[in-house]
């Protein structure tokens, strides 16, 4: 396991790059919670050695893509060493053409950290001064303005970030959108002039795709664990049978995620008077209750596979060219390590998995509010008719699910050649990962609504007690979201519970009682 894997990201105050594999929690700590970034001596040594090699290549005027040649299909154009600075400045300016609304703060910070991590492997030839300035932007909360639309997998959003390092572009500082120059000046920082290879190295690679995928995967894993909790509450409130959780049943289906899910649901419902009273109430339940282990388990497997590939990408160098050291010399290896197909295809698959989790959650929500099947008051309000109760939150879920289904169409199966057909196969991994991020946030709201309505459903169970674990979740929610006696403004209730999910508080409370919820 990587360092800090078992520490909640909000409790990680500094991330030191260079001597260990960067963990997912460390990325979240920097991106979401503002942890500081610094470098070890080994990180600096790798950077300096790689830089010395690229300067040697330039001095000897070796044929190196993006150093002594133009970019893309302009690879046939020879660039003199006297024009090396101009070439790097030009690539940043000309490539900063993404459009639309700016990317979210945590996304930009995650991409910046991925750039530091990627170049920090020591195969890119960038000076330490450039990387120190990126770290200073993170540590001083200077946020580059990065339009988020129009990337095939790399280049344009990253170019907007690189502009700020040059003292160009735009950035937020202390809540104010400023020119890049002014943002740096107010933080008492100085811009850099890019030297050979640096502009290219900052723009190329899988950094933005990996950043989106990390945030998406982190949210998704929290979501599926929360779905186990919400599903348990719904099963209990709907008088579902725990017989479907029998470990003998799951032992003959050889997917450990399924068996783990059944075990987790059983542990959550342990000592539930409600579950014990109604375990033989029906011979078997509807699939949205009966198949929680099967569906949640399949979703978990996808998230685990994605996480493995993300970790591999984080310890990889995705630059082009790769500056490979050989004794006292080295070689520039031209290839395609910037291709993001591994992460892109996994991100598309994550979208499909999250859609499946959303779909079973929506069905449980409908059963809770639908008096035809719930055996509970219509829309979970004591005086229906005069009050609509929780009628419309299910509409919200239906709308979100529709959006998720549309976003689940794979992006990586598409192809539009670029750069005069030099780049004739394009991964489109950027949008695959970006829409996974979008879906992960919609999924959190769907789960918040399930927790909200399941808690209300439990309020109608007064003859028998819920389990100690579900009672603690019910209490956590009721401390912030009161029982619905009559119609009120529900938006703030949904957002409150969504915040509990996003910050991992639902999971933390359950894990305090049953131990780690393994995928």
User: What's the count of strands?
Assistant: 9
What ranges have pLDDT less than 50 throughout 5 or more consecutive residues?
Answer: none
Give average pLDDT, whole number.
95
Strand line-up of the largest beta sheet: 4-6-7
Listing every helix as H and every strand as E from the N terminus to the C terminus, the arrangement reads EHEHHEHHEEHEEHHHHHHHHEEHHHHHHH
Number of helices: 21
- The amount of beta strand, in percent, is 5-15%
Class inferred from helices and paired strands? mainly alpha
What is the approximate shape?
Answer: elongated
Q: Overview of this structure, please?
A:
By secondary structure, this protein is mainly alpha-helical. Helices cover 55% and strands 7% of the residues. The protein has a 3-stranded antiparallel beta sheet. A two-stranded parallel sheet has the order 1-2. It has a two-stranded antiparallel sheet with strand order 3-5. Strand 8 and strand 9 form a beta hairpin. Helix 15 runs parallel beside helix 18 (429-458). The chain starts with 13 loop residues before the first strand and ends in a 5-residue tail after the last helix. The mean pLDDT is 95.
Summed up, what is this model?
The protein is mostly helical and 519 residues long.
Characteristic terms for this protein:
mainly alpha, 519 residues, two-stranded parallel sheet, 21 helices, elongated, 3-stranded antiparallel β-sheet
Write the layout of secondary structure elements.
Layout: E1 14-17, H1 24-33, E2 36-39, H2 41-59, H3 84-95, E3 99-102, H4 105-119, H5 128-139, E4 142-144, E5 147-149, H6 156-165, E6 170-173, E7 176-179, H7 180-186, H8 198-203, H9 207-237, H10 247-251, H11 256-268, H12 273-277, H13 287-290, H14 292-314, E8 322-326, E9 329-333, H15 341-369, H16 371-374, H17 391-407, H18 429-458, H19 468-478, H20 491-502, H21 505-514
Parallel strand pairs: 1-2
Antiparallel strand pairs: 3-5, 4-6, 6-7, 8-9
Helix pairs in contact: 1-4, 1-9, 3-6, 4-5, 4-9, 9-11, 9-14, 9-15, 9-18, 11-14, 14-15, 15-17, 15-18, 17-18, 18-19, 18-20, 19-21
């Amino acid at each position: 396991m990587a360092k800090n894997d078992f520490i909640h990201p909000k409790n990680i105050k500094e991330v030191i790059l260079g001597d260990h594999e960067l963990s997912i929690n460390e990325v979240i700590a920097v991106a979401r919670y503002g942890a500081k970034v610094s470098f070890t001596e080994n990180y600096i040594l790798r950077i300096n050695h790689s830089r010395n090699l690229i300067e040697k290549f330039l001095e000897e005027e070796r044929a190196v893509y993006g150093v002594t040649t133009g970019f893309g299909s302009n690879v046939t154009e020879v660039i003199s060493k006297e024009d090396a600075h101009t070439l790097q400045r030009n690539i940043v300016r000309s490539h900063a053409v993404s459009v639309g609304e700016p990317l979210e703060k945590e996304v930009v910070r995650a991409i910046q950290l991925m750039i530091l991590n990627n170049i920090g492997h020591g195969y890119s030839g960038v000076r330490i001064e450039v990387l120190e300035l990126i770290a200073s932007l993170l540590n001083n909360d200077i946020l580059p303005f990065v339009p988020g639309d129009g990337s095939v997998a790399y280049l344009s959003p990253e170019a907007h970030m690189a502009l700020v390092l040059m003292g160009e572009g735009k950035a937020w500082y202390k809540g104010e959108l400023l020119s890049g120059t002014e943002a740096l000046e107010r933080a008492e920082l100085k811009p850099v002039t890019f030297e050979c290879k640096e502009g290219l190295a900052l723009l190329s690679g899988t950094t933005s795709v990996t950043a989106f995928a990390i945030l998406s995967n982190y949210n998704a894993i929290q979501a599926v664990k929360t779905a186990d909790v919400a599903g348990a509450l719904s099963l209990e409130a709907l008088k579902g049978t725990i017989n479907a959780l029998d470990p003998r049943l799951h032992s003959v289906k050889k997917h450990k995620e399924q068996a783990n899910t059944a075990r987790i649901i059983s542990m959550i419902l342990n000592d539930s008077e409600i579950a014990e009273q109604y375990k033989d109430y029906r011979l078997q339940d509807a699939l949205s209750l009966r198949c929680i282990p099967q569906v949640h388990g399949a979703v978990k497997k996808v998230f685990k596979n994605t996480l493995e590939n993300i970790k591999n990408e984080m310890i990889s160098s995705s630059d082009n060219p790769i500056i490979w050291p050989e004794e006292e010399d080295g070689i520039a290896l031209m290839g395609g390590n910037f291709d993001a197909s591994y992460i892109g295809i996994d991100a598309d698959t994550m979208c499909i998995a999250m859609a499946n989790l959303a779909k079973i959650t929506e069905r449980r929500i409908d059963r809770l509010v639908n008096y035809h099947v719930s055996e509970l008051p219509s829309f979970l309000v004591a005086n229906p008719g005069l009050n609509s109760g929780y009628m419309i939150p299910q509409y919200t879920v239906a709308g979100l699910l529709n959006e998720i289904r549309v976003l689940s169409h794979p992006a990586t199966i598409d192809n539009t050649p670029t750069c005069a057909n030099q780049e004739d196969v394009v991964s489109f991994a950027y949008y695959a990962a970006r829409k996974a991020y979008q879906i992960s946030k919609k999924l959190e709201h769907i789960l918040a609504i399930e927790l909200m309505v399941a808690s209300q459903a439990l309020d109608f169970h007064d003859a028998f007690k819920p389990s100690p674990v579900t009672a603690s979740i019910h209490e956590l929610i009721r401390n912030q979201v009161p029982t619905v006696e009559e119609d009120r403004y529900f938006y703030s209730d949904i957002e409150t519970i969504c915040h509990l999910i996003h910050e991992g508080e639902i999971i933390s409370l359950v894990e305090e009682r049953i131990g780690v919820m393994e995928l």
